[in-house]
Design goal:
The structure holds 3 protein chains of 3 kinds.
Chain A (H helix, E strand, L loop, with lengths): L1 H10 L13 H8 L3 H21 L2 E2 L7 E2 L3 H7 L2 H33 L5 H13 L2 H11 L6 H7 L17 H26 L3 H9 L4 H12 L1 H17 L2 H6 L11 H10 L4 H27 L5
Antiparallel strand pairs in A: 1-2
Helix pairs in contact in A: 3-15, 4-15, 5-9, 5-12, 6-9, 10-11, 12-15, 14-15
Chain B lengths: L1 H18 L7 E7 L2 H18 L4 E7 L2 H10 L6 E4 L2 H9 L3 E2 L2 H7 L1 H4 L2 H5 L2 E2 L2 E2 L2 E2 L2 E2 L1 E6 H7 L7 H13 L3 E3 L9 H14 L1 H8 L8 H15 L7 H6 L2 H10 L2 E7 L6 H8 L3 E4 L13 E5 L2 E5 L5 H12 L2 H10 L22 H15 L3 E3 L1 H4 L2 H15 L5 H17 L10
Parallel strand pairs in B: 1-2, 10-11, 13-15
Antiparallel strand pairs in B: 3-14, 4-14, 5-6, 7-14, 8-13, 9-11, 9-12
Helix pairs in contact in B: 2-17, 10-11, 10-12, 10-20, 14-15, 20-21
Chain C lengths: L15 H24 L4 H6 L11 H9 L2 H32 L5 H13 L2 H14 L6 H25 L3 H9 L4 H12 L1 H17 L2 H6 L8 H11 L4 H21 L1 H9 L6
Helix pairs in contact in C: 3-13, 4-7, 4-10, 5-7, 7-10, 8-9, 10-14, 12-13
Classes of the chains: A mainly alpha, B alpha+beta, C mainly alpha.
């Protein structure tokens, strides 16, 4: 290898560019060979099963034997399934929560971090730690902290603060979903800090100086310099959150499995239960189609906005 | 490029080889729910003993966590063991429908299992005239209580709803939960309670009539039974609040009972095995009493008949005869059965075969012995109730314990819930999917 | 990314409020983890009586017990097999693809790039059921190799993005010179591009390894049997089985998190680089 590199440097001065020459067909085919492994893997693991997944949604199939084509019957059933609508609305609530709270926390953390000299690195690392830990571990942390008989609640209750955390938040229909979302936000927001901080570091410092000379307050600097400059990154994270909110599974499954009475059920857990515990693969497929439509709309909207010339 | 492909292929093959074990011997594989009793008693007393006596067949018992989930996936993947264990007879129906289970009728005839097993237990595994499963444990529902707390408060185990109400009122006044329960570890725990309230409020006769289609689940007795439980849960009789019920694990509830945070627990005799350690930790004592009737129409107290985990033969097994040999070896020795059961604290592996008093190992807990004696006497006298997981068809059973949460949360009325339930029963009858109900 | 200070060094606006809020946020992020570690060294009764205090006796035996009861000897081995193989597989596949996309003028590479973006967005729940039945037919359920193939397919698009951007930054002259000497595309990749992308491979490998070690949905579906379970799903079962034994389950969680945490703290720049690159402004 060393010799090849040496040769490369020695001959680098010559002006001929091989890329401009005509490339023989054999070589073009040879070049595609570099793509085969990834394409084959994606075809087998994602593309074919996804197409099959769309197909299964139009069948009645227990997972054994032959699927039976039943047209749109599964979708008719979805339209009358109160549990499905509960799940769908929980996904929407989830999306609304994640499009606001973590984004706000991420921007706040990143903006404050960008404004300090010492300790930036340490804060960045601390914020990021929950993101690198497994959902099972993080769930354990919060299952303990929010347990109604151990954890923070009873401790607060001893101090006379009752009825806030000394109740089973994961077991209460009104709070189960929000509590799971809280845990997921705790795990996720540090990731946004890091992304936004990276974007902010690319902003031209002179813009801030000009703003300061104009007498802009710190908030005004954020509003008129930082935000517009990192807009593409923000939009991208919005898109990611839109996609992830449709498919959320881990934290809900681990912490509540959709209980109680489906109060924290999301499409991901409902689909899983339908397919793997109720042997109703066709119906589960229909739920999967709805989730895919959601994602397609999000990506489609994103592409549309870009086509319209939005700088996102 | 070629080298790389070759390298990848070899690497993949190596992993494939390490992932698939070699199988040269005729081995019968059985997965059971993992636990210390499996390693300490079931494997030495059953597998090791069997293997020592047989050259041609070897039994391999493997403890699995979340056995039910594992089995479902393994069955779908065609990778299930020879002996398939389910949490109850109701779970087996869907596997039978799917053609995953081999009938054992001829094996049963060959070995005379019909005479070895208790009649109702044998019948609980019969579907459409064929024997598909054998219960490997039987159980019933009883009222556990904190004996230390009861002594302190001067209470006696209740024998009627009025007495329950009195204890509950006094408990609540003293910041004690009348009952403890929860379904965080096992969502179907809902049906433990539903079964008790149906049998003990509406009465076993009425339940029998409904099970056999001579009465509707929408009748008043059942509505009132369902409402009674719902009201108690909503009023915080169980662990203080419905939300705690949903958050409590199996360990949490035994802790609440042992620590005296709760006075009583309506649950199954499978707790015999594990409840003691919680009370030891707390320095308190436990005992049990029969669950009283909740209403006059239910007559004198009863015990619900229940089979717990069942075993079946995998339709894909290569050697059903070997499986038959293993099962018969177990069913044929009451002393062995009880020795294993004792190891599990009589919470598991109490195979429903005919025992005599002499078969119980020396030193059996008095409370446990008292249960088995009373159970035999009371059910022998015809006061036998029906657990939902032993006698309900699969769909109706699942609806019973899932939708009830929506009743408790107020989203679904009791009437609609029971109407749905009745509809699923009618459907099961039409499709011939009901399970055998022992005649009264 | 260096340290930056957007407020400049001129008339300084006070950064004290920044620090106060930042410290509060840091406590919010890190305290729960610290508590997990601290409580992993207590008995359950000590946790119940003083959940937030420093451990009284430092009960290290929780770790031995959790290690045995949680079957970690097996599950760590399983996770290591899955993680290392997935890293190797993904980097190979993605390295080749990134080379083709960055250096070889392929027609349709834009289409491919778009597919990789959308492909990442396809909900796993859409294809997991058919994939499960395909894998069942192929005998790949309950095998490590089956899950490694899935992970490799799932991780390689992102790794491709990352490696592609590294490769694009390699000066064209190196390649040109070699080509004049008659090197084939493969030789150029093998002897020039791949070695120069070394840091990129490390970064991508870390990110892939992190996701594989922590992954739950595919693991719980495709490896239900105890002997094949990786740490994530086995820890989930373990937590359920010993739900009230907080000392034990906390120790179990710490065992799972320790390798990730140590690796992250040691190589945090690369981790963060890996996760923040790859088209965040797509």
């Amino acid at each position: 290898m060393a010799t090849v590199q040496a040769t490369a440097q020695a001959t680098g001065a010559r002006k001929v560019k091989p890329n401009e020459q005509k490339i023989p067909l054999a070589r073009v085919l040879g070049r595609w060979a570099f793509m085969w492994p990834i394409l084959a893997l994606n075809l087998i693991v994602i593309v074919i099963p996804s197409i099959a997944g769309l197909g299964i949604a139009f069948t009645e199939w227990s997972g054994y034997g032959q699927p039976e084509f039943i047209g749109l019957a599964n979708f008719d059933r979805l339209m009358q399934d109160a549990v499905f609508f509960k799940s769908l609305s929980n996904n929407i609530v989830w999306t609304a929560i994640f499009l606001t709270i973590p984004i706000f926390m991420g921007l706040l953390g990143a903006y404050l971090l960008a404004g300090i000299k010492r300790g930036q690195m340490i804060f960045r690392v601390l914020y990021f730690i929950p993101f690198v830990l497994a959902s099972v571990v993080n769930a354990q942390v919060w299952r303990f902290l929010l347990h109604h008989r151990v954890g923070i609640g009873p401790w607060l209750a001893d101090l006379g603060i009752t009825d806030i955390l000394d109740v089973a938040l994961f077991g209460k229909a009104e709070t189960a979903l929000y509590t799971v979302a809280f845990v997921d936000i705790w795990h996720f927001w540090g990731f946004l800090v890091v992304i936004y901080l990276a974007a902010m570091s690319a902003v031209d410092v002179e813009l801030y100086e000009v703003a300061r000379l104009d007498g802009a307050s710190r908030f005004q600097q954020f509003r008129y310099v930082t935000l517009p400059s990192i807009r593409p990154t923000i939009v991208f994270t919005l898109l990611m959150i839109l996609i992830w909110s449709a498919t959320v599974f881990d934290y809900v499954y681990i912490l509540t499995s959709g209980k109680p009475a489906h109060a924290s059920e999301v499409m991901g857990t409902y689909l899983y239960e339908t397919a793997f515990f109720r042997f109703d693969a066709g119906y589960a497929g229909a739920i999967g189609v709805v989730m895919t439509l959601w994602v397609a709309l999000a990506v489609g909207g994103f592409v549309f906005l870009r086509r319209r010339g939005w700088d996102v | 490029m070629k080298h790389l492909k070759l390298f990848l292929t070899i690497a993949l093959l190596l992993f494939a080889l390490t992932s698939v074990g070699a199988q040269d011997v005729t081995t019968v594989v059985w997965w059971t729910e993992s636990g210390d009793e499996v390693d300490d008693f079931l494997i030495p007393l059953l597998a090791d003993a069997f293997n020592a006596e047989h050259d041609d067949v070897q039994l391999e018992i493997i403890g699995q966590e979340s056995l039910n989930d594992v089995n479902r996936t393994a069955l779908q993947a065609g990778a299930a063991p020879d002996i398939i264990q389910t949490p109850g007879a109701a779970f087996i129906a869907e596997f039978v429908d799917a053609g995953q289970i081999l009938p054992m009728t001829s094996l049963a005839d060959q070995y005379g299992w019909k005479d070895k097993l208790l009649p109702w237990a044998y019948n609980s595994g019969v579907l459409g005239g064929e024997l598909y499963s054998i219960p490997i444990t039987y159980e019933s529902m009883v009222l556990f209580y904190n004996k230390t707390l009861f002594a302190d408060m001067g209470w006696e185990p209740p024998t009627s709803q009025a007495e329950i109400d009195a204890i509950a009122a006094e408990s609540i006044a003293n910041d004690i939960f009348p009952f403890t329960y929860g379904n965080a570890s096992w969502q179907p725990s809902n049906e433990h309670l539903m079964g008790i309230y149906l049998n003990n409020y509406a009465g076993v006769e009425n339940v029998y009539l409904a099970l056999t289609g001579q009465k509707s689940w929408t009748d008043t007795e059942f509505v009132e039974a369902t409402d009674l439980l719902a009201t108690q849960l909503q009023d915080g009789w169980f662990s203080g609040d419905l939300s705690n019920y949903y958050a409590n694990t199996g360990d949490d509830i035994r802790y609440e009972l042992a620590s005296g945070e709760a006075a009583m627990m309506q649950s199954g005799t499978w707790n015999f095995g594990s409840i003691g350690q919680f009370f030891e930790e707390q320095g308190t004592e436990w005992d049990w009493a029969p669950l009283p009737s909740f209403h006059e129409q239910a007559g004198e107290y009863n015990y619900e008949l229940a089979t717990g985990s069942t075993i079946s033969v995998n339709a894909n097994t290569e050697n059903p005869d070997a499986v038959g040999k293993v099962i018969d070896y177990w069913l044929s020795d009451p002393a062995r059965v009880l020795a294993i059961a004792a190891g599990a604290g009589f919470g598991e592996y109490v195979v429903p075969i005919h025992f005599t008093v002499d078969d119980f190992p020396a030193g059996t807990d008095e409370r446990v012995a008292r249960f088995f004696a009373d159970f035999a006497a009371v059910t022998g006298a015809g006061r036998a109730g029906y657990t939902t997981w032993t006698f309900w068809p699969a769909d109706a059973n699942v609806q019973l314990w899932t939708d009830i949460e929506r009743v408790w949360s107020g989203e679904l009325s009791t009437e609609d819930y029971l109407a749905d339930h009745e509809a699923l029963w009618e459907q099961a009858r039409d499709e011939g999917k009901t399970l055998p109900i022992p005649a009264r | 990314m260096g340290r930056l200070n957007i407020f400049g060094s001129g008339r300084s606006q006070s950064t004290l409020p920044n620090y106060i809020i930042l410290i509060l946020l840091a406590l919010f992020a890190a305290l729960p983890i610290l508590l997990l570690v601290s409580n992993s060294l207590k008995s359950t009764s000590e946790i119940a009586s003083s959940p937030f205090a420093v451990p009284r006796d430092f009960l290290w035996s929780n770790y031995g017990e959790a290690f045995d009861k949680g079957n970690y000897a097996v599950t760590i081995r399983n996770s290591a097999i899955l993680t290392i193989s997935t890293i190797a597989g993904s980097l190979t596949v993605a390295g080749l693809a990134a080379y083709a996309l960055s250096r070889l003028k392929l027609k349709g590479s834009n289409v491919l790039s778009f597919y990789f973006l959308v492909g990442i967005g396809v909900p796993a729940q859409l294809f997991i059921i058919p994939l499960f039945f395909m894998w069942k037919q192929l005998g790949l359920v309950n095998t490590h190799v089956g899950l490694i193939i899935i992970y490799t397919a799932l991780q390689s698009p992102f790794a491709t993005y990352l490696l592609r951007s590294y490769m694009l930054s390699i000066p064209e002259e190196f390649v040109d010179a070699a080509k004049i000497d008659g090197a084939s595309d493969w030789q150029v990749f093998r002897h020039i591009i791949a070695p120069l992308t070394g840091p990129g491979f490390l970064t991508a490998g870390l990110v892939i390894g992190l996701f594989t070690w922590n992954e739950f949905l595919f693991a719980v579906t495709f490896l239900p049997e105890k002997e094949f379970k990786p740490v994530a799903t086995s820890l989930y079962a373990f937590q359920g089985r010993f739900s009230r034994d907080w000392g034990l389950t906390n120790a179990g969680s710490v065992i799972m998190m320790a390798p990730v945490l140590i690796l992250f703290l040691a190589l945090q720049r690369r981790f963060i680089e890996g996760l923040t690159q790859g088209g965040l402004k797509a």
